[in-house]
Design brief:
The structure holds 2 protein chains of 2 kinds.
Chain A: H1 3-30, H2 35-73, H3 80-83, H4 90-144, H5 150-172, E1 183-186, H6 187-197, H7 199-204, E2 208-211, E3 217-220, H8 222-238, E4 245-253, E5 256-263, H9 283-289, H10 296-307, E6 310-316, E7 319-327, H11 330-334
Parallel strand pairs in A: 2-4
Antiparallel strand pairs in A: 1-3, 4-5, 5-7, 6-7
Chain B: H1 2-24, E1 35-39, H2 43-55, E2 59-61, H3 69-76, E3 80-84, H4 92-102, E4 107-111, H5 116-124, E5 129-132, H6 137-151, E6 159-162, E7 165-168, E8 173-176, E9 179-182, H7 185-196, H8 204-213, H9 220-236, E10 244-246, E11 250-252
The chains are: A alpha+beta, B alpha/beta.
Chain lengths: ~325, ~250
Amino acid sequence: MNGKLYWKNKLPFILTNLFCMILMTLFLLACGNAVSVVEMILIVWVLILMVGMGIAYRNRKKELQKLLTMAEGLQERYLIQEVMRLPERADDQVYYQLMKMAGKSMLEQIGEVRRERLEYKEYIEQWIHEIKTPIAAMKLLCENHRMDFTRELLLELEKTNRFTEQALYYARSEHTEKDYAVREINLIDVVHQVIADNKYLLLHNKVSLEVAERMETVYSDEKWLRFILNQLVANAVQYRTEQPVLRFFAYQRQDQVILSVEDNGIGIPACDLPRIFEKGFTGQNGRIMQQATGIGLYLCRRLCDKLGVGIMAESSREGTVIRLSFHINCLICEV
Amino acid sequence: MTDYKIELLRVIYYDFPYCLCRRTGGGTETDMEQKLMIIEDEPLIRNELRTLLASNGYEVSAPEDLTGIVEQVKAEEPHLILLDIKLPHDSGFSVCAQIRVFSNAPIIFVTSCSTDMDELNSIMLGGDAFITKPYNTAILLARIASLLKRAYPAQGSEQLKYGGAVLHLDSGMIAYGEQKAELTKNELKILYYLFKNAGKICSRGDIVEFLWDNQLYVDDNALSVNINRIREKLAGIGLENFIKTRHRQGYTL
């Protein structure tokens, strides 16, 4: 509470007192009282006034300070009117009422926005499921009627599918826990699936692949992992060099299984490296390529966090290595 | 319950020798005519799937009218069923449960809904696999083949024949007369593809794609190297000029 302003607000009260003192002094003197008696009365009056006002100021300050600290301690500050006591003073109660009204209307607004967002999200998810049927139909049409251009069409369909998947996972990434089945999966199966998903992209860009013969099994969600790897493969192809190579291998280190995806692409500048997982960050490479959205790796990080998978990037002029680390649950292994 | 037992007996006494006699039948065909059934309401996908599966050597039935689909399944007795979850009259799940009452044929769910709940449901109701749209045809075909193999195990080695040469798929050998040559994984798959498409021209792109579908990531240069090695091996067992090069088009047997 601003003390100066408080006393300024009290000025009319003090002036009223002063006015009363003058009137009483005049009255007492006119009645023939001695000056010393009048002085005595005035001193006592001023003293009582000062002490009274001082205590009132201190109590008020304490009370308001308590409210401030209470609000600061709250996670949702807008709920302060629910937590605080009904104030005793009449004017405070008006403010309290106003605050309640404001809070209520805000909650209503937020509720409406939330509902709209949820509806929109559901619509997006449904739309993505629906768009998959025509994509599947187009794919089948291309595979059954192979011509020169079908291979390119299939490449474009792969891209279409990747973008729709990205939208789906973006919509879902908030509530992963609702859609998530942790199972024992062999990393090699996931890698082969990811390569199959991107077959035309990889063939078109003449990427040579090196896939380890054997890989460890981990406990994770296959679908999500596949999405993450799809993004990594798409990135590796987008930022490729003349003779692109993509390596997949896995190894165990202490209590972790690491899946490593290596490319020999243009690499990521050291100054950009710490920020590549941020939303909307495109960096120097993004400026060259124009197509970067800054969403892919951000989503990867977000999904990894939800899955409890570590994701690290390392890069030099000779290429980029992305490592996914899975915790081995010793209990499951031992049983 | 009695239905179920009869079904089981049918599988053991009838299907088993049926698979056997078809499978060992010669020619370049190894796939017995196994009957698949597509239960899908989207006409375009249904037709294209039928084309795809038929061109891969399966007998396919794809009913257009899905009312009373369970009765149709009962009448046709397919070896494997591809089932969409979203159907106009009934959900795929309940169709699956109804089919399971009388049949043990593998059921693959094909769907665009990819939530784990659906996947769990499909497994609980007796589905054998779950593939999401837009399916990767290679993966779909591989799933179908492996499920059929598991459900109707065939005895005897698989082999392909063409022009006196015999390709043994299990042992990875090619034989011509008395002579035999061992093949690597890549070589076996390349020859398999050429044998399957005997008489047709196989473009390099198609061969590479086929290898990729079989998880062998061979590029264009490596394909040339492999073809040359196969030719050397074939020459070694007395098969000269078995694989012919068609300039700018590809290879043919």
